[in-house]
Amino acid sequence: MSWSGKDIHAWHRRLSYQVALYALLKTAIEVETLLSSERHYSDSSPVSDILTTKINSVGEHIESQLNMRLSELVEWFRVVEFPRIAGFFIPLLRKWSMEYAGSGVAGIVVAISCCAAVAKLGPGRVKCPFFAFSIEDVMVELMDLSHSLVSVERLHHLAIEAGFELDFLSHFGRKVLLSNKGEEVEFWIGLAYEKLSSAFHNESAIPGKRNFHDKVQADTLATLGLFAYLGRNTRLFLSTMGIKDIDELLKDFLSYLECGSIFIYPEFASIAVYQQFMEVVTDEIGWLDFYAACPPKSIEERRKSKLHTIQAEKEIALSAVFTVCYDVYSGFAHFCRSTQLSLDSDLLEFLLQSQTLLTTCLEDYWSAYDKSSDWSKIADCSCVATKVSLTILDAHDAQWEPSHLKTAGDSEKHRSKHSLQLRTAPRLLGMETITSMEEGSARKQRHLHRILMKKYSDHLVSTSSDVWMGTHLLFIDLMSALELLLKQLRGHKVSRRERNKLQRTLNDITSLVPVTLLMLLPVSAVGHAAIFAAINKYIPGLIPSPYSSERLDVVKQLKRTKKMEVRTWSNLEDPPSRIT
After folding, report:
1. Is the dihedral of CA 328, 329, 330, 335 positive or negative?
2. DSSP secondary structure letters along 391-422
3. What's the pLDDT score for residue 396?
4. Are 544 and 481 in contact (CB under 8 A)?
5. Average pLDDT for residues 37-52, to the nearest whole number?
6. Terminal C-alpha separation, the chain
7. What would the DSSP string read from start to end of 75-93?
Protein backbone atom coordinates (compact mmCIF):
# COMPACT_ATOMS: atom_id res chain seq x y z
CA MET A 1 0.00 0.00 0.00
CA SER A 2 2.85 2.38 0.68
CA TRP A 3 4.09 2.24 -2.93
CA SER A 4 0.62 2.88 -4.39
CA GLY A 5 0.59 6.42 -3.01
CA LYS A 6 -2.44 5.86 -0.75
CA ASP A 7 -0.62 5.86 2.57
CA ILE A 8 -1.59 8.84 4.70
CA HIS A 9 1.96 9.30 5.91
CA ALA A 10 3.65 12.17 4.03
CA TRP A 11 6.99 10.41 3.83
CA HIS A 12 5.45 7.34 2.24
CA ARG A 13 3.45 9.41 -0.24
CA ARG A 14 6.45 11.43 -1.32
CA LEU A 15 8.66 8.38 -1.67
CA SER A 16 5.99 6.46 -3.55
CA TYR A 17 5.77 9.22 -6.16
CA GLN A 18 9.54 9.22 -6.53
CA VAL A 19 9.64 5.45 -7.01
CA ALA A 20 6.82 5.62 -9.55
CA LEU A 21 8.54 8.20 -11.74
CA TYR A 22 11.88 6.43 -11.31
CA ALA A 23 10.38 3.17 -12.56
CA LEU A 24 8.49 4.90 -15.37
CA LEU A 25 11.55 6.64 -16.80
CA LYS A 26 13.76 3.60 -16.31
CA THR A 27 11.28 1.60 -18.35
CA ALA A 28 11.20 4.32 -21.02
CA ILE A 29 14.98 4.04 -21.34
CA GLU A 30 14.79 0.26 -21.70
CA VAL A 31 12.05 0.46 -24.35
CA GLU A 32 13.97 3.03 -26.41
CA THR A 33 17.17 0.99 -26.10
CA LEU A 34 15.32 -2.07 -27.39
CA LEU A 35 13.91 -0.13 -30.36
CA SER A 36 17.34 1.31 -31.15
CA SER A 37 18.92 -2.16 -31.25
CA GLU A 38 16.16 -3.40 -33.56
CA ARG A 39 16.86 -0.52 -35.97
CA HIS A 40 20.59 -1.35 -35.87
CA TYR A 41 21.55 1.93 -34.25
CA SER A 42 24.80 2.40 -32.45
CA ASP A 43 25.35 0.82 -29.06
CA SER A 44 24.35 3.98 -27.21
CA SER A 45 20.74 5.11 -26.99
CA PRO A 46 20.06 8.87 -27.23
CA VAL A 47 17.33 8.68 -24.58
CA SER A 48 19.66 6.76 -22.30
CA ASP A 49 22.40 9.34 -22.81
CA ILE A 50 20.05 12.16 -21.80
CA LEU A 51 18.13 10.51 -18.95
CA THR A 52 20.51 8.05 -17.28
CA THR A 53 22.49 10.53 -15.20
CA LYS A 54 19.40 12.26 -13.84
CA ILE A 55 17.55 9.00 -13.22
CA ASN A 56 20.50 7.51 -11.35
CA SER A 57 20.55 10.52 -9.07
CA VAL A 58 16.88 9.94 -8.29
CA GLY A 59 17.58 6.28 -7.51
CA GLU A 60 20.42 7.26 -5.20
CA HIS A 61 18.14 9.71 -3.42
CA ILE A 62 15.47 7.03 -2.92
CA GLU A 63 17.99 4.54 -1.55
CA SER A 64 19.45 7.12 0.83
CA GLN A 65 15.96 7.83 2.17
CA LEU A 66 15.31 4.13 2.70
CA ASN A 67 18.71 3.59 4.28
CA MET A 68 17.96 6.29 6.83
CA ARG A 69 14.92 4.29 7.96
CA LEU A 70 16.28 0.76 7.70
CA SER A 71 19.31 -0.52 5.77
CA GLU A 72 17.54 -3.76 4.74
CA LEU A 73 14.97 -1.73 2.81
CA VAL A 74 17.54 -0.84 0.14
CA GLU A 75 18.06 -4.44 -0.90
CA TRP A 76 14.32 -5.11 -0.72
CA PHE A 77 13.71 -2.12 -3.01
CA ARG A 78 16.26 -3.28 -5.60
CA VAL A 79 15.26 -6.95 -5.70
CA VAL A 80 11.53 -6.98 -4.99
CA GLU A 81 9.72 -3.65 -5.17
CA PHE A 82 11.32 -1.86 -8.11
CA PRO A 83 10.92 -4.82 -10.55
CA ARG A 84 7.29 -5.13 -9.46
CA ILE A 85 6.54 -1.44 -10.15
CA ALA A 86 8.46 -1.49 -13.44
CA GLY A 87 6.41 -4.51 -14.50
CA PHE A 88 3.31 -2.32 -14.56
CA PHE A 89 4.85 0.08 -17.08
CA ILE A 90 6.66 -2.30 -19.47
CA PRO A 91 3.60 -3.63 -21.37
CA LEU A 92 2.01 -0.19 -21.47
CA LEU A 93 5.05 1.55 -22.95
CA ARG A 94 5.66 -1.25 -25.44
CA LYS A 95 2.07 -0.88 -26.63
CA TRP A 96 2.57 2.88 -27.05
CA SER A 97 5.78 2.35 -28.99
CA MET A 98 3.97 0.02 -31.40
CA GLU A 99 1.42 2.79 -32.10
CA TYR A 100 4.24 5.10 -33.19
CA ALA A 101 6.13 2.39 -35.11
CA GLY A 102 7.45 3.52 -38.45
CA SER A 103 7.96 7.13 -37.33
CA GLY A 104 11.66 6.56 -36.61
CA VAL A 105 11.36 8.25 -33.22
CA ALA A 106 8.92 5.94 -31.43
CA GLY A 107 11.15 5.43 -28.40
CA ILE A 108 11.90 9.14 -28.10
CA VAL A 109 8.20 10.01 -28.33
CA VAL A 110 7.42 7.52 -25.55
CA ALA A 111 10.16 9.07 -23.40
CA ILE A 112 8.78 12.57 -24.01
CA SER A 113 5.28 11.36 -23.04
CA CYS A 114 6.66 9.95 -19.79
CA CYS A 115 8.47 13.22 -19.02
CA ALA A 116 5.29 15.17 -19.76
CA ALA A 117 3.37 12.95 -17.32
CA VAL A 118 5.99 13.58 -14.64
CA ALA A 119 5.86 17.33 -15.32
CA LYS A 120 2.07 17.30 -14.88
CA LEU A 121 2.54 15.48 -11.59
CA GLY A 122 4.32 18.60 -10.34
CA PRO A 123 7.39 19.17 -8.17
CA GLY A 124 5.22 19.66 -5.09
CA ARG A 125 4.36 15.97 -4.94
CA VAL A 126 7.73 14.61 -5.96
CA LYS A 127 9.97 16.95 -3.92
CA CYS A 128 13.15 15.45 -5.30
CA PRO A 129 16.04 17.96 -5.24
CA PHE A 130 17.88 16.18 -8.05
CA PHE A 131 15.01 16.00 -10.49
CA ALA A 132 12.22 18.51 -9.99
CA PHE A 133 13.87 21.40 -11.83
CA SER A 134 15.39 19.44 -14.74
CA ILE A 135 12.39 17.65 -16.26
CA GLU A 136 11.58 20.57 -18.59
CA ASP A 137 15.19 20.66 -19.78
CA VAL A 138 15.05 16.92 -20.49
CA MET A 139 11.89 17.36 -22.55
CA VAL A 140 13.51 20.18 -24.54
CA GLU A 141 16.55 18.00 -25.33
CA LEU A 142 14.35 15.09 -26.40
CA MET A 143 12.12 17.26 -28.59
CA ASP A 144 15.13 18.87 -30.28
CA LEU A 145 16.57 15.41 -30.84
CA SER A 146 13.37 14.14 -32.42
CA HIS A 147 13.12 17.28 -34.58
CA SER A 148 16.54 16.51 -36.01
CA LEU A 149 15.22 13.10 -37.13
CA VAL A 150 11.74 13.92 -38.46
CA SER A 151 9.99 16.97 -39.89
CA VAL A 152 8.27 19.42 -37.59
CA GLU A 153 4.89 18.59 -39.14
CA ARG A 154 5.33 14.87 -38.47
CA LEU A 155 6.52 15.57 -34.96
CA HIS A 156 3.45 17.70 -34.32
CA HIS A 157 1.15 14.83 -35.30
CA LEU A 158 3.07 12.52 -32.97
CA ALA A 159 2.81 15.10 -30.17
CA ILE A 160 -0.97 15.22 -30.59
CA GLU A 161 -1.23 11.42 -30.46
CA ALA A 162 1.15 11.14 -27.49
CA GLY A 163 -0.50 13.94 -25.50
CA PHE A 164 2.28 16.53 -25.25
CA GLU A 165 1.11 19.01 -27.89
CA LEU A 166 1.11 21.94 -25.44
CA ASP A 167 4.71 21.24 -24.50
CA PHE A 168 5.58 20.93 -28.18
CA LEU A 169 3.93 24.27 -29.02
CA SER A 170 5.40 26.14 -26.07
CA HIS A 171 8.91 24.99 -27.06
CA PHE A 172 8.85 25.23 -30.85
CA GLY A 173 6.51 28.24 -30.88
CA ARG A 174 9.56 30.31 -29.91
CA LYS A 175 11.40 29.11 -33.01
CA VAL A 176 8.77 29.88 -35.61
CA LEU A 177 10.86 32.37 -37.59
CA LEU A 178 14.31 31.09 -36.62
CA SER A 179 14.25 28.42 -39.30
CA ASN A 180 15.48 29.25 -42.78
CA LYS A 181 13.14 26.63 -44.24
CA GLY A 182 10.20 28.27 -45.95
CA GLU A 183 8.02 25.18 -45.58
CA GLU A 184 8.38 25.28 -41.78
CA VAL A 185 7.33 28.94 -41.60
CA GLU A 186 4.37 28.09 -43.82
CA PHE A 187 3.50 25.16 -41.52
CA TRP A 188 3.48 27.34 -38.39
CA ILE A 189 1.40 30.07 -40.01
CA GLY A 190 -1.04 27.43 -41.25
CA LEU A 191 -1.20 25.75 -37.84
CA ALA A 192 -2.00 29.04 -36.10
CA TYR A 193 -4.63 29.81 -38.74
CA GLU A 194 -6.29 26.39 -38.39
CA LYS A 195 -6.42 26.64 -34.61
CA LEU A 196 -8.02 30.08 -34.78
CA SER A 197 -10.48 29.01 -37.46
CA SER A 198 -11.54 25.98 -35.42
CA ALA A 199 -11.89 28.07 -32.26
CA PHE A 200 -14.06 30.71 -33.94
CA HIS A 201 -16.13 28.05 -35.65
CA ASN A 202 -16.86 26.39 -32.31
CA GLU A 203 -17.29 29.65 -30.39
CA SER A 204 -20.99 30.02 -29.69
CA ALA A 205 -21.14 33.81 -30.02
CA ILE A 206 -19.38 37.07 -29.41
CA PRO A 207 -21.49 38.40 -26.50
CA GLY A 208 -24.76 39.69 -27.84
CA LYS A 209 -23.45 40.30 -31.32
CA ARG A 210 -22.70 37.71 -33.98
CA ASN A 211 -22.62 33.95 -34.34
CA PHE A 212 -19.59 32.56 -36.14
CA HIS A 213 -20.73 29.07 -37.06
CA ASP A 214 -20.39 30.09 -40.70
CA LYS A 215 -17.12 28.73 -42.08
CA VAL A 216 -16.35 31.84 -44.15
CA GLN A 217 -16.77 34.13 -41.14
CA ALA A 218 -14.64 31.82 -39.01
CA ASP A 219 -11.85 31.84 -41.63
CA THR A 220 -12.02 35.61 -41.91
CA LEU A 221 -11.80 36.00 -38.13
CA ALA A 222 -8.91 33.55 -38.04
CA THR A 223 -6.95 35.70 -40.52
CA LEU A 224 -7.78 38.90 -38.65
CA GLY A 225 -6.81 37.23 -35.37
CA LEU A 226 -3.46 36.07 -36.74
CA PHE A 227 -2.45 39.55 -37.87
CA ALA A 228 -3.92 41.17 -34.76
CA TYR A 229 -1.70 38.89 -32.70
CA LEU A 230 1.27 39.89 -34.87
CA GLY A 231 0.53 43.56 -34.19
CA ARG A 232 0.12 42.95 -30.47
CA ASN A 233 3.32 40.89 -30.28
CA THR A 234 5.21 43.61 -32.16
CA ARG A 235 3.90 46.36 -29.86
CA LEU A 236 4.90 44.41 -26.76
CA PHE A 237 8.33 43.67 -28.25
CA LEU A 238 9.04 47.36 -28.87
CA SER A 239 7.81 48.18 -25.37
CA THR A 240 10.07 45.62 -23.70
CA MET A 241 12.98 46.90 -25.79
CA GLY A 242 12.35 50.36 -24.33
CA ILE A 243 11.64 51.91 -27.74
CA LYS A 244 8.92 54.53 -27.37
CA ASP A 245 9.87 57.30 -29.81
CA ILE A 246 8.68 55.61 -32.99
CA ASP A 247 7.22 57.70 -35.77
CA GLU A 248 3.52 58.13 -36.40
CA LEU A 249 3.60 56.07 -39.58
CA LEU A 250 4.81 52.97 -37.74
CA LYS A 251 2.26 53.59 -34.98
CA ASP A 252 -0.48 53.71 -37.61
CA PHE A 253 0.73 50.44 -39.11
CA LEU A 254 0.76 48.65 -35.73
CA SER A 255 -2.64 50.08 -34.75
CA TYR A 256 -4.16 49.04 -38.06
CA LEU A 257 -2.58 45.59 -37.81
CA GLU A 258 -3.82 45.01 -34.25
CA CYS A 259 -7.26 46.65 -34.40
CA GLY A 260 -8.01 47.00 -38.11
CA SER A 261 -10.70 44.33 -37.78
CA ILE A 262 -13.10 47.10 -36.71
CA PHE A 263 -13.24 48.24 -40.36
CA ILE A 264 -14.59 44.81 -41.35
CA TYR A 265 -16.67 44.08 -38.25
CA PRO A 266 -17.80 47.44 -36.79
CA GLU A 267 -19.09 45.68 -33.65
CA PHE A 268 -15.44 45.11 -32.67
CA ALA A 269 -15.27 48.83 -31.88
CA SER A 270 -16.93 47.88 -28.59
CA ILE A 271 -14.29 47.21 -25.94
CA ALA A 272 -16.21 44.21 -24.58
CA VAL A 273 -16.52 42.56 -28.00
CA TYR A 274 -12.94 43.25 -29.05
CA GLN A 275 -11.68 42.01 -25.69
CA GLN A 276 -13.58 38.75 -26.19
CA PHE A 277 -12.12 38.43 -29.69
CA MET A 278 -8.54 38.91 -28.49
CA GLU A 279 -9.05 36.52 -25.56
CA VAL A 280 -9.88 33.77 -28.05
CA VAL A 281 -6.85 34.68 -30.17
CA THR A 282 -4.33 34.75 -27.31
CA ASP A 283 -5.76 31.60 -25.77
CA GLU A 284 -5.37 29.66 -29.01
CA ILE A 285 -2.02 30.93 -30.33
CA GLY A 286 -0.46 32.46 -27.22
CA TRP A 287 2.41 30.00 -27.64
CA LEU A 288 3.61 31.92 -30.70
CA ASP A 289 6.52 34.28 -30.09
CA PHE A 290 7.69 35.97 -33.25
CA TYR A 291 10.49 37.86 -31.50
CA ALA A 292 12.06 35.14 -29.37
CA ALA A 293 15.29 35.55 -31.32
CA CYS A 294 15.59 39.17 -30.10
CA PRO A 295 15.61 39.01 -26.29
CA PRO A 296 15.26 42.47 -24.68
CA LYS A 297 17.95 43.95 -22.51
CA SER A 298 17.40 44.46 -18.82
CA ILE A 299 16.70 47.93 -17.42
CA GLU A 300 20.14 48.09 -15.80
CA GLU A 301 21.89 47.30 -19.08
CA ARG A 302 19.76 49.87 -20.89
CA ARG A 303 20.65 52.55 -18.35
CA LYS A 304 24.35 51.86 -18.83
CA SER A 305 24.06 52.18 -22.60
CA LYS A 306 25.26 55.32 -24.32
CA LEU A 307 23.24 57.39 -26.74
CA HIS A 308 24.72 55.87 -29.89
CA THR A 309 24.22 52.38 -28.40
CA ILE A 310 20.53 53.10 -27.81
CA GLN A 311 20.21 54.39 -31.38
CA ALA A 312 21.86 51.20 -32.65
CA GLU A 313 19.48 49.07 -30.56
CA LYS A 314 16.52 50.97 -32.00
CA GLU A 315 17.69 50.37 -35.57
CA ILE A 316 18.23 46.65 -34.84
CA ALA A 317 14.79 46.35 -33.22
CA LEU A 318 13.04 48.11 -36.11
CA SER A 319 14.91 45.94 -38.60
CA ALA A 320 13.71 42.86 -36.68
CA VAL A 321 10.13 44.19 -36.74
CA PHE A 322 10.11 44.68 -40.50
CA THR A 323 11.77 41.31 -41.11
CA VAL A 324 9.28 39.45 -38.92
CA CYS A 325 6.27 41.20 -40.45
CA TYR A 326 7.51 40.45 -43.96
CA ASP A 327 8.12 36.79 -43.08
CA VAL A 328 4.60 36.44 -41.66
CA TYR A 329 3.03 38.04 -44.73
CA SER A 330 5.12 35.86 -47.01
CA GLY A 331 4.33 32.70 -45.02
CA PHE A 332 0.62 33.49 -45.08
CA ALA A 333 0.72 34.10 -48.84
CA HIS A 334 2.41 30.73 -49.42
CA PHE A 335 -0.15 29.07 -47.15
CA CYS A 336 -3.02 30.63 -49.12
CA ARG A 337 -1.56 29.44 -52.42
CA SER A 338 -0.82 25.92 -51.21
CA THR A 339 -4.27 25.43 -49.64
CA GLN A 340 -6.20 27.38 -52.30
CA LEU A 341 -7.64 29.53 -49.52
CA SER A 342 -10.20 32.03 -50.77
CA LEU A 343 -10.35 35.51 -49.23
CA ASP A 344 -13.37 37.76 -49.35
CA SER A 345 -13.06 41.31 -50.68
CA ASP A 346 -13.06 43.06 -47.28
CA LEU A 347 -10.36 40.81 -45.90
CA LEU A 348 -8.26 41.16 -49.05
CA GLU A 349 -8.54 44.93 -48.83
CA PHE A 350 -7.42 44.80 -45.17
CA LEU A 351 -4.38 42.69 -46.06
CA LEU A 352 -3.40 44.86 -49.01
CA GLN A 353 -3.84 48.04 -46.99
CA SER A 354 -1.72 46.71 -44.12
CA GLN A 355 0.94 45.53 -46.58
CA THR A 356 0.99 48.98 -48.17
CA LEU A 357 1.50 50.56 -44.76
CA LEU A 358 4.32 48.08 -44.08
CA THR A 359 5.99 48.95 -47.38
CA THR A 360 5.71 52.67 -46.66
CA CYS A 361 7.17 52.21 -43.17
CA LEU A 362 10.04 50.19 -44.61
CA GLU A 363 10.80 52.85 -47.23
CA ASP A 364 10.70 55.55 -44.57
CA TYR A 365 13.02 53.49 -42.37
CA TRP A 366 15.59 53.02 -45.13
CA SER A 367 15.49 56.68 -46.09
CA ALA A 368 16.13 57.62 -42.45
CA TYR A 369 18.91 55.02 -42.32
CA ASP A 370 20.56 56.53 -45.39
CA LYS A 371 20.39 59.96 -43.77
CA SER A 372 21.86 58.61 -40.57
CA SER A 373 24.86 57.33 -42.49
CA ASP A 374 25.80 60.97 -43.11
CA TRP A 375 25.86 61.81 -39.40
CA SER A 376 29.52 60.95 -39.12
CA LYS A 377 30.34 63.22 -42.06
CA ILE A 378 28.28 66.03 -40.55
CA ALA A 379 30.00 65.52 -37.23
CA ASP A 380 33.42 65.56 -38.87
CA CYS A 381 32.54 68.73 -40.75
CA SER A 382 31.32 70.39 -37.57
CA CYS A 383 34.57 69.48 -35.81
CA VAL A 384 36.60 70.95 -38.68
CA ALA A 385 34.44 74.07 -38.67
CA THR A 386 34.93 74.45 -34.92
CA LYS A 387 38.70 74.16 -35.28
CA VAL A 388 38.71 76.70 -38.11
CA SER A 389 36.59 79.10 -36.03
CA LEU A 390 38.92 78.75 -33.07
CA THR A 391 41.92 79.40 -35.33
CA ILE A 392 40.30 82.54 -36.73
CA LEU A 393 39.51 83.79 -33.22
CA ASP A 394 43.07 83.14 -32.08
CA ALA A 395 44.41 85.01 -35.09
CA HIS A 396 41.96 87.85 -34.49
CA ASP A 397 43.16 88.20 -30.86
CA ALA A 398 46.80 87.99 -31.88
CA GLN A 399 46.43 91.00 -34.18
CA TRP A 400 46.00 93.31 -31.17
CA GLU A 401 49.15 92.34 -29.31
CA PRO A 402 52.42 93.54 -30.95
CA SER A 403 51.20 95.64 -33.85
CA HIS A 404 49.32 98.27 -31.82
CA LEU A 405 52.10 99.55 -29.54
CA LYS A 406 51.70 103.06 -28.22
CA THR A 407 54.19 105.58 -26.98
CA ALA A 408 54.93 105.80 -23.31
CA GLY A 409 53.10 109.10 -22.94
CA ASP A 410 49.98 107.95 -24.68
CA SER A 411 49.98 104.78 -22.60
CA GLU A 412 50.32 106.72 -19.38
CA LYS A 413 47.43 109.08 -20.33
CA HIS A 414 45.21 106.19 -21.30
CA ARG A 415 46.03 104.32 -18.10
CA SER A 416 45.26 107.30 -15.86
CA LYS A 417 42.01 108.05 -17.69
CA HIS A 418 40.88 104.41 -17.45
CA SER A 419 41.68 104.23 -13.73
CA LEU A 420 39.66 107.40 -13.14
CA GLN A 421 36.63 105.87 -14.85
CA LEU A 422 36.97 102.75 -12.74
CA ARG A 423 37.09 104.82 -9.52
CA THR A 424 34.04 106.90 -10.37
CA ALA A 425 31.57 104.04 -11.00
CA PRO A 426 32.58 100.89 -9.11
CA ARG A 427 29.49 100.80 -6.89
CA LEU A 428 26.99 101.24 -9.70
CA LEU A 429 28.57 98.47 -11.74
CA GLY A 430 28.48 96.05 -8.76
CA MET A 431 24.79 96.78 -8.09
CA GLU A 432 23.87 96.16 -11.74
CA THR A 433 25.75 92.85 -11.70
CA ILE A 434 23.98 91.64 -8.55
CA THR A 435 20.59 92.70 -9.91
CA SER A 436 21.11 90.87 -13.21
CA MET A 437 22.23 87.72 -11.35
CA GLU A 438 19.12 87.80 -9.14
CA GLU A 439 16.85 88.30 -12.14
CA GLY A 440 18.49 85.38 -13.95
CA SER A 441 18.12 83.12 -10.90
CA ALA A 442 14.47 84.06 -10.45
CA ARG A 443 13.79 83.50 -14.15
CA LYS A 444 15.41 80.08 -13.96
CA GLN A 445 13.36 79.12 -10.88
CA ARG A 446 10.12 80.18 -12.58
CA HIS A 447 11.04 78.10 -15.63
CA LEU A 448 11.78 75.02 -13.51
CA HIS A 449 8.54 75.56 -11.60
CA ARG A 450 6.54 75.65 -14.85
CA ILE A 451 8.26 72.47 -16.07
CA LEU A 452 7.52 70.63 -12.81
CA MET A 453 3.92 71.78 -12.76
CA LYS A 454 3.40 70.65 -16.36
CA LYS A 455 5.05 67.30 -15.62
CA TYR A 456 2.89 66.65 -12.56
CA SER A 457 -0.29 67.83 -14.28
CA ASP A 458 0.37 65.58 -17.30
CA HIS A 459 1.12 62.67 -14.98
CA LEU A 460 -2.08 63.34 -13.02
CA VAL A 461 -4.17 63.51 -16.20
CA SER A 462 -2.59 60.31 -17.58
CA THR A 463 -3.05 58.39 -14.33
CA SER A 464 -6.64 59.61 -13.93
CA SER A 465 -7.40 58.51 -17.50
CA ASP A 466 -5.86 55.08 -16.81
CA VAL A 467 -7.92 54.70 -13.62
CA TRP A 468 -11.09 55.60 -15.50
CA MET A 469 -10.35 53.18 -18.35
CA GLY A 470 -9.44 50.45 -15.85
CA THR A 471 -12.69 50.98 -13.98
CA HIS A 472 -14.58 50.69 -17.26
CA LEU A 473 -12.78 47.41 -18.03
CA LEU A 474 -13.51 46.12 -14.53
CA PHE A 475 -17.21 46.89 -14.98
CA ILE A 476 -17.19 45.00 -18.30
CA ASP A 477 -15.51 42.02 -16.60
CA LEU A 478 -18.07 42.03 -13.79
CA MET A 479 -20.98 42.05 -16.25
CA SER A 480 -19.39 39.23 -18.23
CA ALA A 481 -18.77 37.20 -15.06
CA LEU A 482 -22.36 37.74 -13.99
CA GLU A 483 -23.59 36.41 -17.35
CA LEU A 484 -21.38 33.32 -16.98
CA LEU A 485 -22.67 32.68 -13.46
CA LEU A 486 -26.26 32.91 -14.70
CA LYS A 487 -25.32 30.52 -17.51
CA GLN A 488 -24.04 28.02 -14.95
CA LEU A 489 -27.19 28.39 -12.86
CA ARG A 490 -29.31 27.54 -15.90
CA GLY A 491 -27.39 24.27 -16.23
CA HIS A 492 -25.29 25.16 -19.28
CA LYS A 493 -21.73 23.95 -19.56
CA VAL A 494 -18.99 26.53 -19.10
CA SER A 495 -15.87 26.22 -21.26
CA ARG A 496 -12.31 26.27 -19.98
CA ARG A 497 -11.82 29.79 -21.32
CA GLU A 498 -14.91 31.00 -19.49
CA ARG A 499 -13.79 29.35 -16.26
CA ASN A 500 -10.45 31.13 -16.56
CA LYS A 501 -12.27 34.41 -17.07
CA LEU A 502 -14.35 33.84 -13.94
CA GLN A 503 -11.23 33.03 -11.95
CA ARG A 504 -9.46 36.14 -13.25
CA THR A 505 -12.39 38.37 -12.32
CA LEU A 506 -12.52 36.85 -8.85
CA ASN A 507 -8.79 37.51 -8.39
CA ASP A 508 -9.28 41.09 -9.58
CA ILE A 509 -12.03 41.70 -7.03
CA THR A 510 -9.85 40.24 -4.29
CA SER A 511 -6.84 42.39 -5.19
CA LEU A 512 -9.06 45.46 -5.54
CA VAL A 513 -9.69 45.62 -1.77
CA PRO A 514 -6.15 46.59 -0.61
CA VAL A 515 -5.71 49.00 -3.53
CA THR A 516 -9.00 50.70 -2.67
CA LEU A 517 -7.94 51.08 0.96
CA LEU A 518 -4.71 52.73 -0.15
CA MET A 519 -6.56 55.05 -2.51
CA LEU A 520 -8.89 56.11 0.34
CA LEU A 521 -5.99 57.62 2.29
CA PRO A 522 -6.55 61.36 2.96
CA VAL A 523 -4.05 62.72 0.42
CA SER A 524 -4.35 64.99 -2.58
CA ALA A 525 -5.16 63.84 -6.11
CA VAL A 526 -1.47 64.06 -6.99
CA GLY A 527 -0.71 61.82 -4.00
CA HIS A 528 -3.27 59.25 -5.13
CA ALA A 529 -1.76 59.30 -8.62
CA ALA A 530 1.71 58.82 -7.15
CA ILE A 531 0.52 55.91 -4.97
CA PHE A 532 -1.14 54.21 -7.91
CA ALA A 533 1.93 54.72 -10.14
CA ALA A 534 4.25 53.36 -7.41
CA ILE A 535 2.08 50.26 -6.89
CA ASN A 536 1.90 49.66 -10.64
CA LYS A 537 5.70 49.96 -10.93
CA TYR A 538 6.97 48.13 -7.86
CA ILE A 539 4.10 45.74 -6.95
CA PRO A 540 2.33 45.03 -10.27
CA GLY A 541 0.80 41.83 -8.90
CA LEU A 542 -1.29 43.90 -6.50
CA ILE A 543 -2.94 45.81 -9.35
CA PRO A 544 -6.16 44.23 -10.73
CA SER A 545 -5.74 43.16 -14.35
CA PRO A 546 -8.14 45.83 -15.78
CA TYR A 547 -5.72 48.49 -14.48
CA SER A 548 -2.59 46.79 -15.84
CA SER A 549 -0.65 48.48 -18.62
CA GLU A 550 -1.13 45.46 -20.90
CA ARG A 551 -4.91 45.74 -21.00
CA LEU A 552 -4.94 49.55 -20.95
CA ASP A 553 -2.63 49.65 -23.96
CA VAL A 554 -5.12 47.53 -25.91
CA VAL A 555 -7.86 50.07 -25.21
CA LYS A 556 -5.55 52.89 -26.29
CA GLN A 557 -4.74 51.05 -29.51
CA LEU A 558 -8.43 50.55 -30.18
CA LYS A 559 -9.14 54.26 -29.67
CA ARG A 560 -6.25 55.22 -31.91
CA THR A 561 -7.48 52.92 -34.69
CA LYS A 562 -10.97 54.42 -34.50
CA LYS A 563 -9.47 57.82 -35.30
CA MET A 564 -7.50 56.54 -38.28
CA GLU A 565 -8.63 57.48 -41.76
CA VAL A 566 -8.25 54.45 -43.99
CA ARG A 567 -7.45 55.62 -47.50
CA THR A 568 -9.39 54.23 -50.43
CA TRP A 569 -7.54 52.48 -53.22
CA SER A 570 -8.19 55.38 -55.55
CA ASN A 571 -6.00 57.58 -53.37
CA LEU A 572 -3.08 55.15 -53.29
CA GLU A 573 -0.29 55.33 -55.77
CA ASP A 574 0.35 52.02 -57.51
CA PRO A 575 -1.73 49.83 -55.20
CA PRO A 576 -0.44 46.27 -54.99
CA SER A 577 -2.50 43.72 -56.82
CA ARG A 578 -1.60 40.78 -54.64
CA ILE A 579 0.18 39.83 -51.45
CA THR A 580 3.75 38.72 -52.00
Report:
1. positive
2. HHHHHHHHTTSSTT---HHHHHHHHHHHHHHH
3. 40
4. no
5. 68
6. 65
7. HHIIIIIHHHHHHHHHHHH
pLDDT surpasses 90 at 312: no
**CB environment 246-264: b (16+ within 10 A), e (fewer):** beeebbbbbbbbbbbbbbb
Query: Exposure string (b/e) for 437-467, b if CB count within 10 Å is 16 or more?
Result: eeeeeeeeeeeeeeeeeeeeeeebeebeebb
| Contact (Cβ atoms closer than 8 angstroms) between residue 118 and residue 163 | no
**Residue 365 CA: distances (Å) to CA of 230, 319, 320, 322, 439:** 19, 9, 12, 9, 46
Confidence band for 493, pLDDT divided at 50, 70 and 90: confident
Q: Please check whether residue 348 is in contact with residue 333, taking contact to mean a CB–CB distance below 8 angstroms.
A: no
d(CA 31, CA 101): 12
Q: CA torsion 406→411→413→419, rounded to 10°?
A: 140
- 166 has pLDDT over 70: yes
For the cut 80, the answer to whether the pLDDT of residue 209 exceeds it is: no
Q: Is the pLDDT of residue 231 over 90?
A: yes
Confidence (pLDDT) at 429 = 46
Average pLDDT over residues 446-473: 72
**Cα–Cα distance for residue pair 429/417, rounded to 1 Å:** 18
Q: At what angle do helices 165-172 and 106-121 cross, to 10 degrees?
A: 100
The residue length of the chain stands at 580
Q: Per mean pLDDT, which range of 32-36, 281-285, 487-491, 573-577 is the poorest?
A: 573-577
Non-local (6+) Cβ contacts of 465 within 8 A are: none
Nearest to 21 by CA among 121, 93, 146: 121
The letter for the amino acid at 219 is D
Task: Tell me the pLDDT band of 367, cut-offs 50, 70 and 90.
Answer: confident
Helices first, then strands: H and E counts in the chain: 22, 0
In 3D, which of 363, 352, 365 has the Cα closest to residue 575? 352
- Of the candidate ranges 176-190, 301-315, 477-491, the one whose mean pLDDT is the lowest: 301-315
Report whether pLDDT(567) > 60.
Answer: no
Compute the Cα dihedral for 569, 574, 576, 580 and give only its sign.
negative
Please tell me whether residue 472 adopts helix, strand or coil conformation: helix
- Using an 8 Å Cβ cutoff, are 27 and 120 in contact? no
